[in-house]
Write a structure and sequence with these properties.
Blueprint lengths: L1 H20 L10 E6 L3 E12 L2 E7 L2 E12 L2 E7 L2 E12 L2 E7 L2 E12 L2 E8 L12 E8 L2 E12 L2 E7 L2 E12 L2 E7 L2 E12 L2 E7 L2 E12 L4 E6 L7 E3 L12 H16 L4 E6 L7 H21 L7 E5 L17 H7 L2 E6 L2
Parallel strand pairs: 20-21
Antiparallel strand pairs: 1-18, 2-17, 3-16, 4-15, 5-14, 6-13, 7-12, 8-11, 9-10, 19-22, 20-22
Length: 366
Amino acid sequence: MKQKILLLVCFIAGIGFSQAQGLPTNPEPGKCYVKCITKDEFKEVEETIQTSPAYTTLQVVPATYKTVEERVLVKEASKKFVYVPAVYETVDVPYVKQEGRTDLKVVPASFGNDSRTFEIYPKTSGWEYKVLEDCPSVNKDDCVAACFVEYPAQSRDVSFTTLASDASTNSVPVGEQSATYKKRVIKTPARMDEIEIPAEYTTIKRRVIDTPASTTSTTVPAQYQTVTRTVLDKKGGITTWEEVDCELLDPNVLPIFYELGSARLTPSSKKTIDDTLLPILSDSNVSIEIMSHTDSRGNDDFNQSLSQQRANSVVNYLVSKGISRSRLSARGFGESRLTNRCANGVECSEAQHQRNRRTEFRVLSN
């Protein structure tokens, strides 16, 4: 019972760890998984660029002349002026010797009589006590009577003078006095009579441009060159998990055989690549590293370069089959990773040297 509980705890812990790491949630026992980050994909495009611009060459055609006759001014036209004096005449000019005026006559004020009644004391009323005569009582207060008495208003007539019309004036016009005086005025104004003096001309000969200088042009066409460049075709970055056989994570030797000192792929080597590497790359997004080696014969630096060329030849062949170059890497190790004792100076058979001239591949977790 304790073992079952322990296994359950480990299983749950394993699930939590895989989720935290982003690992596949339902892995199969005995399977390996590689994390593939989709790399940028590139493509080659051809572009035509201008290496030399079009331009124009010019050739000058000189100007030509011709002789022409021309009438020119030798003395400008002018004018002269003749003065004609003014003519006068005598006229009578009227004027006001004494201006007219308006005299004023005073009309005195006139008056009338009128009267008006004024109330000099108002109407009054009130209670008054009156002692009855022949009062039989010894106490006189018993014979007092209260009477309500009313007294009429008192008036007075007042006479006064009224203004019928106020003093005023009447206008009395007095006419103006006129006279005349003699004045000499211009009958015909003075003037200046203008007399034209004509210009004088002569004829001359001169050379003038018949055809202006010009140029003839010749267009030299532009020159172009086609260049091939690599551009981004598809942006990568998507992370996925790909299931692969565990043995593919370790270097696997491909039966690719090269001629001595050559990096050329033989038809049989291409078939090996088609049967081995293409299915892996076509059915998944994994990346593959190509590792090439040489035997120990020859110069070490030459072998290093040769091994890199051999790894490149495999990558180039896969790219020609439609595999993105971003999923492939090529590394040459020269004679640094021999699989047997056949190092420099050691006598070995051709078969032993052949085992070192190998190409390996492995799946990368990128």
